[in-house]
């Protein structure tokens, strides 16, 4: 580890973190553009061939961005899509984003750092960041939006420039450091471990939006909710949200083992 990362792990003060020099490179899980066609038409796409773990250059921060030293990250299905280059190569997303110009051009690189969930410690903030400071313990939402786009203020998911960080952007969370917009950050709940905190935002946030949020189903007490794929990332959170909201989850799974897991989550009505 570099000296800044060592200071983070040791629980150093914000003042000490600011004094430590940023490394010029950092370790990250990434794909490479020259591998985008490596699987051809093959159905079996072994991500051990396409994923690389090694040093990548440290990017500059935009005024509205924050650099986070990652204490824990997690894998989502979009990580699998990126690593298998299916249904499309994520390098196409990066090229499209870079056409905006300005700081967006940094994302069009011959490598793509993956990861759309992370928890960690803020180590640097852009000059336009007001609500976050070095030393803050945070989790990152995957929703990467343009906060100057009017539609975003009604619903962040409806903005034309809404993207998934670490999938449609570069510098994702499966790395020693990650770059996120300040608008993506939430305080880490003190009672959660780093690993617990890093596993929640994408799947838990999506399930909450679909079931409870203003743009979702607006589930109420007593509702019966059919949950397809009920032991997956979204489904497992959905089961718990329904139960804790006074609803009745009906879970759909594809094996006896998953049915047993689902019952342990508290889902009494299971369709195998």
Number of strands: 13
Query: Which percent range fits the helix content?
Result: 25-40%
Shape: globular
Strand and helix order? HHEHEEHHEEEEHEEEHHEHEHE
Low-confidence stretches: none
Q: What does the average pLDDT come to?
A: 95
Proportion of beta-strand residues: 15-25%
- Order of neighbouring strands in the sheet with most strands: 9-3-5-6-10
Radius of gyration: 20 Å
Structural class: alpha+beta
Termini separation: 47 Å
Number of helices: 10
Outline the biggest β-sheet: 5 strands, antiparallel
Overview of the structural elements:
The longest helix is centred in the C-terminal third of the chain and has 12 residues, at 233-244. The strands form four sheets. This protein has a five-stranded antiparallel sheet. The model has no long low-confidence stretch (mean pLDDT 95). The protein has helices spanning 3-9, 14-19, 47-50, 77-84, 90-98, 150-154, 194-198, 201-211, 233-244, 256-264, and strands spanning 25-32, 52-57, 65-73, 111-113, 118-125, 137-140, 143-144, 163-164, 177-181, 185-187, 224-228, 248-252, 269-271. It is an alpha+beta fold. Helix 8 (201-211) crosses helix 9. The protein contains ten helices and 13 strands. The termini are far apart.
